[in-house]
Structures are given as structure tokens and as C-alpha cells.
């Protein structure tokens, strides 16, 4: 299964779980409702609703005997919940669950680049109020990040000024000067980003805050053209497309983690413990540096030009090592073994 398919299946399962949790209270409040009407209210097909009801029939309390499961009665095309298995009762958090939620919200509030911080703080205040003395537990949350730079960027964005930034682009291993018109600050995958209209690229770009080496506020206000729209980053910053280079790697057990941290088009089991991994990359220069940093348990299968680039760089590194080590050995001082 591809990573995209896995994410889609996860979203579908999560959507269905949320629907099932809402379905029982909905039906309890409307005994004898027609299936067609319920499906319309819930935004699903009648067939999907029937499948959800069939699943609910095998859900219930631990023990899962006939008297523990959710039960319902059908009268033609009408349905009535006859036993809700306690799903109508409000959620009660244990002490550990409440404390975990408080810590998570505090961490989110401290994360640089998070939008809607006010909403996070309001939710935190409500949970802390409900948790009572438990919320006063001696737990401090601090994010290991360049918060000073992020907050300075955030303040500049709020002032609505254009910025001149010095930015390091890892994909091309180069530093450039750009003039940008900020749109917003955001956080993706634990990293803070400046989203802005880049006048050089004439497009919206995301700039990682920790790669902005310097920035200066310009006198002029930010001028964002009408076609500049915020990007959808719900699935991450990098969005693979068919026009990007496709590489194939053979990875050993120790390097399988890359399939969890990088978008992969396809993953197949190879010989022994090896996997074959297909992934899109921004360019082959980035791919070369990426592969060389992974170690000997990763082999490039394709494309041929990447195979040659990696081979050439690896050979050059070995040649340099062979030159440096003997020279250093020749300068080594004798060791007194007495």
C-alpha cells in the first residue's frame, strides 16, 4: 500500500469513527426516524448508514455479551436505538488523561508559528479550570526552538511590512537574497515557517524560520497580489507531483525509517530484509546529498544519473580519505610502550 493510500485510509477510518460516535446520540434523540432522512442529515448515503448501523451492532461495553452491545430495532425503513451501552453519557477524563491534555495544550501554546493561539489558550483555560488542583502540577513546557527569531518574524508579519531575507535553500545548497511579502506564520511538523509571496519566484513560498539567516523590514507595506493564496499544508510542506524526479532506493532494515518521515509513492518488499522505495524529490542534487547521508545500507537503483552521481561522490570521498589518512599516519609520533 502506498503512503498516500495509507493516509487516505486513515482519514476514512477517522471520519467513520467520528460519525459513529455522533450517530447514537443523534438516533436517541430521534426514535423511529427514517433511514433516508437520517442519511441526509448526516451527509452520507443510505447504504453507508446501514453499514454503520451494522457495525454499531457489534460495539458496546467490555464483556461484549448480548446485554453489553448497542441494540436497535427496525420497523421497515425506520430505526430506533433500544440500548445505547452508555455512549450517551458525557466523557469523563481520568487524572492522567487530564494532565496529558493540559501538557499537550501548553506545548501547543508554546510552539512557534502556531495559528489561532487564542483558541488554544481558551481551550487550555477551560481544561485547567475543569482539572482543578491537578492543573497546578509542577510541569513546565518549553519548546527547543529559536523562539526569539520566530517571534521577531511574527511581529514583522503582524506589522504588515515587506521583508528582505537571506535564506538558505537546502535543496540546492545555496543562500540567496529575496524580497518577500508575508502572508502568515505557521507551524508544520514541529517547525515554524514564514509563508510569503516571493517577488523573485513570483509565487507563494514557504521559508523555514531556522533557515532564514537574516531579515530586514522594508519601509514599504507588504503588497500581496490577488492570486497569492495560502498553501494547504495539512499533509506536510512537500507535495510530490508527477513532474518531479522519481528515484528508487533499496534500503536495509536500519533505514526503513525514511518511509515514515518522507512521502513515498510506493514501497515493496525486496530480497531478505531489504525494501524497494520509490519517492519524488525536488531535484537530484538534493537526492544525492540525502542518499550520501544515509550510509551503506541504502543503494540507489534509479535513475542512472543519480546512481552515477552518488558513485562519483563516494569514490571521491574514499580517494580523499586514502590521501589524508596515510599523511596523518606519517606525522604520527612514536609511542613509548615501556
From TrEMBL:
It comes from Micromonospora echinofusca. Residues 150-215 form the WYL domain. Residues 15-128 form the PafC HTH domain. PROSITE patterns: WYL (PS52050). Pfam families: HTH_PafC, WCX, WYL. Residues 248-318 form the WCX domain. This is WYL domain-containing protein. InterPro entries: CBASS_pafABC_assoc_protein, PafC-like, PafC_HTH, WCX_dom, WYL_dom. The lineage of its organism: Bacteria, Bacillati, Actinomycetota, Actinomycetes, Micromonosporales.
Amino acid at each position: 500500500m502506498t503512503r498516500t493510500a495509507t493516509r487516505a485510509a486513515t482519514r476514512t477510518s477517522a471520519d467513520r469513527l467520528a460519525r459513529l460516535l455522533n450517530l447514537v446520540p443523534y438516533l436517541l434523540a430521534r426514535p423511529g426516524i427514517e433511514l433516508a432522512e437520517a442519511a441526509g442529515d448526516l451527509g452520507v448515503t443510505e447504504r453507508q448508514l446501514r453499514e454503520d448501523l451494522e457495525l454499531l451492532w457489534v460495539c458496546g461495553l467490555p464483556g461484549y455479551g448480548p446485554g453489553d452491545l448497542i441494540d436497535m430495532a427496525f420497523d421497515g425503513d425506520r430505526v430506533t436505538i433500544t440500548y445505547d451501552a452508555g455512549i450517551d453519557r458525557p466523557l469523563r477524563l481520568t487524572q492522567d488523561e487530564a494532565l496529558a491534555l493540559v501538557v499537550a495544550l501548553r506545548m501547543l501554546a508554546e510552539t512557534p508559528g502556531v495559528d489561532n493561539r487564542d483558541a488554544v489558550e481558551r481551550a487550555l483555560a477551560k481544561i485547567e479550570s475543569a482539572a482543578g488542583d491537578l492543573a497546578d502540577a509542577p510541569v513546565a513546557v518549553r519548546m527547543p526552538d529559536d523562539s526569539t527569531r520566530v517571534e521577531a518574524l511574527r511581529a514583522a508579519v503582524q506589522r504588515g511590512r515587506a521583508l528582505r531575507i537571506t535564506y538558505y535553500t537546502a535543496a540546492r545548497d545555496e543562500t540567496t537574497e529575496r524580497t518577500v511579502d508575508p502572508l502568515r506564520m505557521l507551524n508544520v511538523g514541529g517547525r515554524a515557517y514564514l509563508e510569503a509571496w516571493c517577488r523573485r519566484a513570483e509565487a507563494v513560498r514557504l521559508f523555514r524560520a531556522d533557515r532564514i539567516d537574516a531579515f530586514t523590514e522594508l519601509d514599504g507595506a507588504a503588497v500581496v497580489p490577488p492570486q497569492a493564496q495560502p498553501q494547504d499544508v495539512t499533509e506536510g510542506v512537500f507535495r510530490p507531483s508527477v513532474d518531479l524526479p522519481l528515484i528508487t532506493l533499496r534500503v536495509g532494515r536500519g533505514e526503513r525509517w525514511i518511509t515514515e518521515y518522507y512521502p513515498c509513492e510506493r514501497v515493496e518488499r525486496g530480497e531478505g530484509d531489504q525494501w524497494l522505495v520509490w519517492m519524488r524529490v525536488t531535484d537530484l542534487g538534493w537526492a544525492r546529498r540525502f542518499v550520501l547521508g544515509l550510509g551503506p545500507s541504502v543503494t540507489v537503483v534509479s535513475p542512472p544519473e543519480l546512481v552515477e552521481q552518488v558513485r562519483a561522490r563516494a569514490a571521491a570521498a574514499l580517494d580523499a580519505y586514502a590521501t589524508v589518512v596515510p599523511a596523518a599516519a606519517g606525522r604520527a609520533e612514536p609511542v613509548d610502550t615501556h
